[in-house]
Amino acid sequence: MDLERLMQSSQLELLQAMPVFGAIREDVLELLLGHARSASRRAGEYFFRENEQADSMFILESGCASVTKAWQDGECFLHRLHAGDCFGEMALMDMGPRSASVRADEDCVAIELATRNFMELFERDLEQFALIQMNIGREVCRRLRVADERVFQYAMRECQQGGSAPASDPPPHCQP
Question: Does residue 56 lie in a domain region?
Answer without folding.
Answer: yes
